[in-house]
Each structure stands twice: as C-alpha cells, then as structure tokens.
Amino acid sequence: MNNLSTQASPLQEPTKDSAHVLVLGGGVVALTTAWTLLDRGIKVTVLSKEWASYGDDSPISSQAAGALWKCLPLECGPQAVTANLATNQKWTLESYKVYNALANMPECNGIIETRPCTIVTTGPIEGNPTMSNKLDFVKKNLSGYQRGSDLFEKYQINTQHAGGLSEAYEYTAPVINVDRAMKFLTDLVTSKGAILKTGTIEGDLLDQESQLLDEHQADAIINAMGLGAGAAAADSNAYGLHGALLRLVNDGTHFPVVRNALIVSSTRAGESGGDGAFILPREDGILALGTISEANGTAADLTLDSEAVRAMRARCEDLLPQLKNAQLHPENPIVRGTRPQRRGGPRVERELRRAGSRIIHAYGHGGAGWSLAIGSAQETARLVDEVAAEALQELETRLMETAWAEKKTYPTVETRPLEAQVLL
Known about the structure:
Helix content: 25-40%
Largest sheet: 8 strands, mixed
Order of helices and strands: EHEHEHEHEHEHEHEEEEHEEEHH
Shape: elongated
Number of helices: 10
Number of strands: 14
Strand content: 15-25%
Radius of gyration: 26 Å
Distance between the termini: 81 Å
Strand order of the largest sheet: 4-5-3-9-10-11-8-12
C-alpha cells in the first residue's frame, strides 16, 4: 500500500539518527505527509494554527470538501487546469490505489467507500485533447469503466441540461467521509509518534527558517499550510476559492435514493466556475450538491439564500429533475469552505529563492486535495530524503573541517647531518 500502514506503530521505527521534519498545517495534505514520513522512520512534529473540529464548529477546508476521488483535470472553472497534468494524474492514481485498499479494511469502515461516478459532457470527447486524455487515463487505470448513452436513461439524467449533453461514462471512485477521515488521520499519526503542536506562523518562512529549525530541532520544514501557504512562500499565484455544498436527505422518501456520483464535465477555465453541477451520495443518507467556485468575497457570503447557492441548486435539479422534491438536511444543510487554489496547479517542490534552503512546499491542491494527497505526500517524502542527505553531507563536512583545524602538531625530531651519523 505504497509503504503505508494503518497499524499504530511506524512501518520503520525511527532511530536516534533519524531525520526530524517539521510539518506546517493540519489539513489532509499535511497529515497525509506526516503519515508517509512516519512510516519511513522519520520523526515528525506537526504545527498548525487549527485542527479538524466536529459538530457545529466551523470545519477546516479539508472538511468542507466533497471528497469524491476525482480524475484530473477537474471538471470546471479555475480547477480545470492542465499544467503538470501527467504528474498530477500520477499522484491521483497513487491516492486511488491506497483509498481502494483502505476501503476494504475493517478499520476503515465508514471512513472510505467506493461508488460509481458518472461523468456527463457538454460536448464531444473526441476532438477535445483534454477530455480525450482524461478518458484514456480512466480506461487504462480505473475499475468499473463503461461508456454509453444508455447511462442517461439509467440514471434519469436530463439530456437537455446546459444546452444539451453529449456523452456519458463512469468508473468506480472512492468517497471519503471527511470528518471521520480527518479524525482517523489525526489519531493515526499521533499513534505513530508524531508530536502535534498548536501555533501560528506569520510572514515569509524564508525569514524564519533557521529559527524554526533550531526551535523544533528539525532537519527540514514542509509548508503544507493550505490557505496560509502562499503567504508563507511569498507566492502571488496562491489564492482562496470559495465554495459550498448543500446537504439533502437521501433516504428515498422524497425521491428515489441516488447511489452514484454525477458530475457535468466542462473544461472551461477562469477565475470563477459558475456553471458546474456535482451530485454526491454519502453512506450516511446525505446527498451533497455542488459546485460553486467564487474567487471574490468570502465563504461566509454563501448562504442558503445567496444567488450563487440558489443557482447551483437549480443546476443540479435541472440535471437530475427528481431532486426538485428534495428536502434540505435538518442538520448543517450547507457546508462552506475556501479551497487553497494556485494558478498553474499544485506546488510540491523545494524552496527556490535561496540555495541550500531546507524548506519544502506542498500546497495549492485546490479542490483535489483528497484526490492528490497520497501521491503528493510520496513526492514530498522524496524531497525530504534529498534534503536530509544534503544536511548529513553538510554535517560530515563541518566535522571534518573541525577535526582538521584541531589536529595536533607534533614537534619535529632534530636530525644530525649524515656525516655525523656515519662517524658514530
């Protein structure tokens, strides 16, 4: 399972000489990275200004996600980016394999399940390079693939939606229960030895790198702070993208139970994507509706009565007309959050502004955080190995230089001329 284990102890126990890494952030990317490092025998401290909360408290971004595993590029708006697509698809596939394995483990019952995910398109796939690439990836790598217009009738989809739907295909995808998954990750990394600290990092990490390394006795720093990561990296390409999910009762009372996820695929890109539709059933009798992508304002602006939310619900009802009879869930009918978006796609790389920096950035995963998390963490772990090897080399060099400087000089033995030696 990609060298990951759900057991309480690390797959590889740390030693006194193991590297120690400071992970900044408390979301899915940060905790999955911590899990990956711990199972490699690396010591980990996780520092975050906030952690997952449950009940009526405001959730963190990772908890406000739909958390359906999705194949990249995502379907609409600014998330439909194709930069570094091959790498990002590789990361999603690594995540897909791990999630499928977890879904079959008793200890993950109620945390991850798998469902059919049906993609419908507003234009032909052939002739569209992005859609064709995505379909090829699905056919080659994912289970449960099928394609055909019969899917429209099977799921009672309105083919006149968005000016007319062209094609449909589906595959089996993992669905993550975000609240349970965040608790699972938090408990897991704690049991494996991670130290969790609450604290705030303000300003550019580069200016406080030495201080943080010394304070936490760390060999490397991972910037996985989500919404705060861009400021910490002085990255003007990072920004927040606000969204909301409506939660409907999906118990068969007001409409037939929806059992498959349904997404309208569009590759139009821009700062806001206001024409998408996303329908996701959950195992707890809830049907989630999305999607909204708003770069302006705040997530708090998205209420049940706001224009963007009403328009989103109308799109979903138009796509699946049976939802016109749906009732909002009495508990938390709307979930709002802000995605940590980045123009150009996720950034997983070492700090470039100063040679020899031990900062590694892992942010900008946007609405695909859960889909990318496992694969992204594997790449981050590779960079940690790289930084640790350089740090060890640097230490060895300093020790050699110190030893050479402290090397004792012995007095030379006085010798007599050769003639004298011969006479003796």
